[in-house]
Design brief:
The complex is a heterodimer.
Chain A lengths: L35 H4 L35 H12 L22 H7 L2 H4 L11 H18 L3 E3 L5 H18 L6 E5 L5 H8 L3 E5 L9 H7 L4 E7 L11 H10 L3 E5 L19 E3 L20 E3 L11 E4 L5 E4 L1 H12 L16 H37 L17 E3 L10 H10 L6 E2 L9 E3 L7 H20 L18 H6 L25
Parallel strand pairs in A: 2-3, 2-4, 4-5, 5-6
Antiparallel strand pairs in A: 1-7, 1-8, 6-7, 8-9, 10-12, 11-12
Helix pairs in contact in A: 3-11, 5-11, 6-7, 11-13, 12-13
Chain B lengths: L7 H11 L4 H4 L22 H13 L22 H7 L2 H4 L11 H18 L3 E2 L6 H16 L3 E4 L5 H14 L2 E3 L11 H7 L4 E7 L11 H9 L3 E6 L18 E5 L15 E5 L12 E5 L5 E5 L6 H4 L12 H38 L5 E2 L7 E5 L4 H10 L6 E2 H4 L9 E5 L6 H15 L1
Parallel strand pairs in B: 2-3, 2-4, 4-5, 5-6
Antiparallel strand pairs in B: 1-7, 6-7, 8-9, 10-11, 11-13, 12-13
Classes of the chains: A alpha/beta, B alpha/beta.
Chain lengths: ~550, ~450
């Protein structure tokens, strides 16, 4: 995740020298592409159908009469439209994508292939269970791995993304507290947390309070202990935290929270740094979501779909959502739904299973489960451990190669985990993180996460991931060193960056002040304002 | 390990630059007692592509593939033909391996797609604006109720008995934590929907009425009278569409006065995939856009005055607003939205209409044939591509008996409403363009034999 609060706004259009030479506005392989609403029309289609006699309609007299105005294109036009658009995107397949807290690692294509096996891709979520045993086995296998890798007790597989998983964890905590008749009102969240943490806690009906941090960028245990009390339902901690540091006192934090009857939620966004090295269950954590789209490399797809299973401690396991996956004493992992929840509870939980309910229709992100399991099996226990080690090694290499030109606020306290954090301290007056980020674009890199976490001024959070080679890191380091030096020197040219991207800096203020959220066909000249302008006709 | 590029020489050189003697030194913040000394015991070690493929393919083979048998399941997930070019295009690395478009200068591809998607969805659902997608239909439905609460500042929602029971379950879970009251009822195996009950229940305390269209039994009812009644009391109408192909043939909810229209977009471009990932659709009136959850792409200009797109109105969202956000949603369903948008572009107005006509015509044919089986009644008077039969026996065992004959013959209401005797004989059958005449023959023969 990242934030772009630049507030940047153009004073006047800059002279467009770069495309003055062409009639079309295209520049060789950089091709402009209109909207489908400008090139398609209501009568074009790229799909042929089988002949079908039309019967009498049974539509309750609600037949559509007005056109929808959905433009169609033939297949070649469609393929070209989307291919051209795709080329205006940066992607991991093109280069380093060091977006902190997002774990933009290589997406193995084996995973894509296996997710498309008809036995996984072409089965319906409500098929009778005897016809989907392989799918349930796959979910169970992944659940088994997630439980073992985290040293936890159960796992809720259905949450659709990280924030959805957070909600699942907090709802489990609330359900467990209610079950013992212990209404609590406060959730403690560090200031450095992802915005989803406080949003989630507030949604679940809790008052959110900050946890103080030390100058080393860690949770201040002494201050936390002072705040803990019978009103605290949970503490939400990100570990490794968003400054890229491991919380060395994690076990002591958990013990302190448990001592006052609260629960510990861990944001698992940074699990990549410790997978196979440390088990959150050994640190006293009660619930943690795992972003399959980060640690286990299911593709981000330009903003989803994600997948956020939540591993649960023994204390929280009985409260997880349906459908629910848990391992019983005999070592078998079960997928439990409404229809068999009671029976399962009696057989294996002494009737204690008290699910807080359902969070989604169906079973969760099956397509992501397949990819994640393929990733996990490919790496194995040894490979996953190597993932953590190489991701941490790569981040520390970046940190130590740049700390003389970029302020690294926590470097004094030791190594970082899988992401290195820098601030904008030392830049010339008027220069900020956004200028560095946009200059990186011109150098062929995706920028790092900017201005997050909020606790570091002008934060730059760099997460290279383990799938970057040393050569790739060296090139990035050379580029970022040069840009950092220019920012320190106050090189005005940085302010114009990017100049080589498909677009120059975009006016976000204009977009928010006068929102244009869907395409409106232009009114032809001379037509009265408000007259329909032949929409969809193209 | 094929995915890890560092060599041992690289690692040594990098450790030297860092000034650490070993990788373990980098983990020194992790307390020694919590540190694992080697790969977790009992778990397998790394494996070749071939070995992984063999293992997963063995699991895949244990499933009955929808495309290989007569298949008639719906109830919120539908099997439609997806043109080959859709899957090809969404696998382009520039779409597949991009992140959320936070750096718009190098994400115009994703942003323009989202802008086009928003426009297609808004027009299809009959609304002014749509967002860049939600997780799925069920979570979009819950978010709509939350949005109605924020707009009306009321906390009672009336839920139609025709709403998908999984969607109802999601809303019940969430309402427990937000303090919303939900008026709920079970559907009846009858031709009429519960529109009258809904209208009679609306009062000044109600935030919204939630109606699925077509509903869980496949029935279609005019939403206009419900919208009118809701508006007369200052409440909103939330319409839920789980089969968007229907809107190629029937009026959109927005046209009939719905204020918020949400839906499951899986039908268009996204395969069945055992329930996910899918793509939630969310549309509303322009005046309510600042209360809408989820990401939004908007048009703007760059420094040279060229048209471009950015994520916008993010002051509604959690990364800015933290605990005051409209929702905790962070991810959308970008790649599925792309698949939806490409498929919709291939169809266009003409193709969508034709697809909808074929679905409806085939469903009418099949309904008439099945209703002719002695003892089997067609519950619906109206439907699009999905209808409910009342069998002379419980539908749940009938579905299992059909599996024995290698027919996936619909969804039993016993599965969706466990323990509800009045619904136990209900069987919901979906018929799409993918169903062949031979499939229909097989379904009819199987059902005829089972109910005899």
């Amino acid at each position: 995740m990242t934030v772009n609060p630049s507030g940047w706004k153009p004073a006047a259009p800059i002279a467009a020298a770069s495309d003055a030479a062409t009639v079309t506005g295209n520049r060789a392989l950089m091709l402009e592409e209109p909207l489908i609403f400008e090139i398609g029309d209501n009568d074009s289609t790229g799909v042929d159908f089988e002949p079908q006699a039309l019967a009498a309609q049974r539509l309750a007299g609600l037949e559509r009469r007005a056109p929808i105005n959905l433009p169609g294109l033939s297949e070649p036009q469609t393929v070209r439209h989307y291919t051209r658009l795709s080329r205006q995107n940066y992607a991991i397949d093109l280069g380093l994508f060091p977006l902190g807290s997002c774990t933009m690692k290589h997406n193995p294509r084996l995973n894509e292939k296996l997710a498309r096996l008809p036995g996984f891709a072409d089965i319906h979520p409500l098929q009778p269970k005897e016809t989907v045993q392989g799918a349930l086995e796959l979910i169970n296998s992944l659940a088994f791995w997630l439980i073992d890798l985290t040293g936890m007790h159960g796992v809720a597989m259905s949450p659709k993304a990280g924030a959805h998983g957070e909600l699942c964890g907090i709802l489990c905590i609330r359900a467990a507290l209610e079950a013992r008749g212990d209404a609590r009102s406060v959730v403690l969240v560090p200031e450095s947390a992802h915005g989803t943490n406080p949003a989630t806690a507030a949604f679940a009906g809790y008052k959110v309070e900050d946890i103080p941090a030390t100058k080393e960028g860690r949770v201040d245990l002494a201050a936390l202990k002072l705040r803990l009390g019978p009103d605290v339902a949970a503490v939400m901690i990100t570990n490794p935290n968003t400054c890229g540091l491991f919380e060395p006192e994690m076990k002591a934090i958990s013990d302190a929270v448990h001592a006052v009857g609260g629960f510990v939620y861990c944001d698992g966004a940074n699990f990549n740094a410790i997978v196979g090295k440390v088990r959150p269950g050994d640190l006293g954590i009660d619930a943690m979501h795992i972003n399959l789209h980060k640690t286990f490399s299911t593709p981000h797809g330009g903003g989803g779909p994600g997948s956020g299973p939540v591993v649960l401690s023994e204390a929280l396991s009985p409260y997880g959502p349906l459908p629910y996956t848990a391992r019983t004493k005999d070592g078998v992992v079960h997928l439990v739904e409404e229809e068999d929840a009671d029976e399962f509870s009696r057989a294996h939980f002494g009737g204690r299973l008290r699910s807080f309910g359902r969070m989604v229709a169906f079973h969760g992100q099956m397509g992501m489960f397949t990819r994640a399991l393929s990733y996990i099996l490919s790496h194995g226990a040894d490979g996953l451990r190597q993932v953590a080690e190489d991701s941490v090694l790569n981040a520390n290499y970046v940190l130590r190669s740049l700390e003389d030109v970029l302020d690294a606020p926590f470097a004094f306290s030791g190594p970082c985990m899988h992401e290195a954090i820098f601030s904008d301290k030392g830049f010339a007056e008027g220069f900020s993180t956004i200028d560095v980020a946009k200059a990186l674009i011109d150098e062929g890199f995706h920028p790092m996460t900017m201005y997050f976490p909020l606790v570091v001024h002008g934060a730059m959070l760099v997460e290279p991931t383990e799938t970057e080679s040393k050569a790739s890191l060296d090139q990035f380091i050379v580029a970022l060193r040069s840009i950092a030096e220019r920012a320190r020197a106050g090189d005005q040219a940085l302010k114009a960056a990017p100049i080589h991207a498909p677009r120059r800096r975009l006016d976000e203020t204009l977009a928010a002040r006068q929102p244009i959220l869907s395409y409106k066909h232009p009114v032809p000249e001379g037509a009265e304002s408000g007259a329909a302008a032949g929409i969809g006709g193209g | 390990m094929r995915y890890l590029p560092l060599s041992d020489d690289d690692r040594s050189a990098m450790l030297a630059r860092i000034g650490a003697g070993s990788v373990d030194e980098l983990f020194r913040d992790v307390p020694a007692e919590a540190r694992l000394s080697g790969p977790i015991e009992g778990l397998p070690l790394h494996a070749s592509e071939m070995a992984v493929e063999r293992q997963l393919a063995a699991m895949a083979r244990k499933n009955m593939v929808a495309g290989e048998v007569p298949f008639f399941l719906g109830c919120g997930a539908y099997r439609h033909h997806v043109p080959a070019s859709v899957d090809h295009l969404i696998q382009r690395g520039e779409f597949l391996t991009a992140y959320t478009p936070y750096q718009p200068e190098i994400a115009q591809g994703t942003l323009q797609v989202l802008f086009e998607f928003q426009t297609q969805v808004a027009r299809l659902l009959g609304c002014e604006v749509a967002n860049a997608s939600m997780y799925d239909g069920s979570t979009a439905c819950w978010e709509a109720i939350g949005m109605a609460r924020r707009i009306t500042r009321r906390k009672r929602a009336i839920i139609s008995s025709g709403l998908h029971p999984h969607y109802v379950a999601v809303c019940r879970t969430m309402a427990k934590f937000t303090g919303d009251t939900l008026d709920l009822a079970l559907p009846e195996l009858a031709a009429a929907t519960d529109a009258e009950r809904l209208i009679a229940s609306i009062d000044k305390e109600v935030s919204c009425v939630v109606v699925q269209y077509p509903d869980i039994l496949g029935r279609i009812a005019d939403l206009a009278p419900i919208a009118e009644a809701a508006h007369a009391h200052g409440a909103l109408l939330v319409a839920v569409v789980t089969e968007p192909v229907a809107l190629g043939l029937i009026k959109s909810p927005g046209e009939m006065g719905a204020d918020i229209v949400v839906g499951e977009g899986q039908s268009i471009g996204v395969g069945l995939q055992f329930g996910g990932p899918y793509v939630g659709l969310f549309a509303c009136r322009e005046k309510h856009v600042r209360q809408m959850p989820g990401r939004l792409a908007g048009e703007t200009v760059d420094a040279e005055g060229k048209r471009g797109f950015v994520l916008t109105l993010s002051t509604r969202e959690q990364h800015i607003r933290r605990e005051k956000a409209t929702s905790n949603i962070c991810t959308n369903s970008g790649l599925c939205a792309l698949a939806f948008s490409i498929h919709m572009t291939l169809l266009g107005e003409k193709g969508l209409r034709r697809l909808a006509e074929i679905n409806h015509a085939r469903a009418v044919e099949v309904a008439e044939r099945l209703a002719a089986i002695p003892g089997v009644e067609l519950v619906n008077e109206s439907f699009f591509n999905e209808f409910t039969l009342k069998l002379p026996i419980e539908a749940r065992p009938a579905v299992h008996a059909m599996v024995e004959k290698r027919v996936l013959g619909g969804v039993s209401l016993g599965r969706l409403y466990p323990g509800e005797a009045a619904l136990a004989n209900g069987l919901v059958i979906a018929v799409t363009e993918t169903v062949s005449n031979a499939d229909v023959d097989a379904l009819e023969a199987a059902l005829r034999e089972i109910v005899r």
